[in-house]
Amino acid sequence: MLFMKNVNRKIKIVISYILTILIILMIAVFLYFLYFINKDVSIKFIGTIAIILLVSIWLLFEQERRKKNKKTYVKSTIKRFILITSEGERDMEWHCEGVNSFLIGKKAGDQEVDIDLSDTKYSEYVSNEHAVLNYSGGYWYIEDLNSANGVGVKKKGEEYALRLKPMVSYKLDEWDIIYISKAKILVR
Question: Coil, strand, or helix at residue 173?
Fold first, then answer.
C-alpha cells in the first residue's frame, strides 16, 4: 500500500512538471507571436498587460499553495525535566528550552552526560549512557539506549509504568514520569 502511495505521488510530480513545461512553452510561443510577428503596438500593449496579470495571479496561487504545504511545528509545552526524590521532593531540574537533546546516565571518566544521575540513591543501576531525550517536530521523545536496567514511562493518570523497548522512541507528554532504574524524572 505504501509503495502505491509513493508511485501515485511520483506520477503526480511528473505530471505537474510536464504541465509546467507545457505552460512555459505556450507562454514562449505567445511572447514570440506578440513581440516578433505582431506589428500592432496596441496588441503588444494589451498582451503585455495580460502577461503581467497572469504572472501575478500565478504567483499568488503559488504562494498560497506553498503556505498550505508548509509544515507547521507545534512548540512543546514541556519546559523542564525534574528529578524527584523517593519522598516526592524536587532534587534537580534541567530546563529544555532551546535544547534538542539530553543524554541521561552517569559521568564516567571524561565522558559527559547532560542529565547526570551519578549522585542518586540507586546510581549503581544506572548505565553510563542509559537513555536519550530528543526534541523533534515540537515534541519530546525518550529512547532507552539498551541500558542494563531499562527505562519506564508512567503516563499521567496511569497506574503503572510502561517498560520501553530498547532503541525505540516514545513520545512524552507533560506530567509523565520517566523511570531510569529507580530514579524518577517528572516531565514538566
Answer: coil
Averaged confidence pLDDT in the chain: 87
And the C-alpha cell for 137? 517536530
What would the grid cell of residue 157 be?
493518570
Distances (CA, A) of 65 to 61, 62, 71, 137, 171: 6, 5, 12, 21, 31
Bridge partners, residue 83, by sequence: 92, 185
* Residue appearing with cell numbers 512548540: 75
Q: d(Cα 82, Cα 161) in Å, to the nearest integer?
A: 17
From the number of C-beta atoms within 10 Å of its C-beta (0-12, 13-18, 19+), residue 83 rates as buried
The size of the chain, in residues, is 188
Query: Which contiguous run of DSSP H or E holds residue 185?
Result: strand 183-187
The pLDDT tens digits for 106-164 are: 998 888 999 999 988 889 999 999 999 999 888 999 999 999 999 999 999 899 999 99
Cell (9 digits) for 102: 539530553
| pTM for the predicted model, two decimal places | 0.63
Phi, psi (deg, nearest 5) at residue 12 = -60, -40
